[in-house]
Amino acid sequence: MNTACIERLRELAESITALSLSHLQPATRAKLHRNDLSVNAYPTEFGGLVYVGSPPHRIPVETDLALIAGLSARAGIEWLFFDSEGPVIDGLPMFASQDSLPDADQSGDH
User: Fold this and answer.
1) Average pLDDT of the residues in 54-76
2) Of 14, 37, 103, 107, which is most buried, counting CB atoms within 10 Å of its CB?
3) SS3 of the chain
4) Is the CB of residue 93 less than 8 Å from the CB of residue 31?
5) What is the per-residue pLDDT across 79-93, written as a single tens digit (0 to 9) for each?
6) Which of 20, 88, 71, 69 is nearest to 48 (CA)?
7) Which InterPro entries does the record cross-reference, listed alphabetically (predicted)?
8) How far is 36 from 20, CA to CA, in rounded Å?
């Protein structure tokens, strides 16, 4: 294997962390699902990938996401992977699941 290629790939690598979707408010989760966040995002079936950059390229207008993005930037994290089964991070706010809200969209399996 070409060691120069491997070294270059390592130089280009960006950090990612996985965390629970419950750290986002229901409105922010809905925006993520619709690919309508104020920052670059890539929705998945059960959450989504959000690019925050380090240093941040843009501060999210969604206050819950801005808090997480700020902490992530201090940790050197460029990508956040929100997942319905992701780990809960102590110290971050938690919000009720959209499914438990009376007017939640019940069209999904979650």
Assistant:
1) 92
2) 37
3) CCHHHHHHHHHHCCCEEEEEHHHCCHHHHHHHHCCCCCCCEEEECCEEEEECECCECCCCCCHHHHHHHHHHHHHCCCEEEEECCCCCCCCCCCCCCHHHCCCCCCCCCC
4) no
5) 999 999 999 999 999
6) 20
7) DUF5983
8) 19
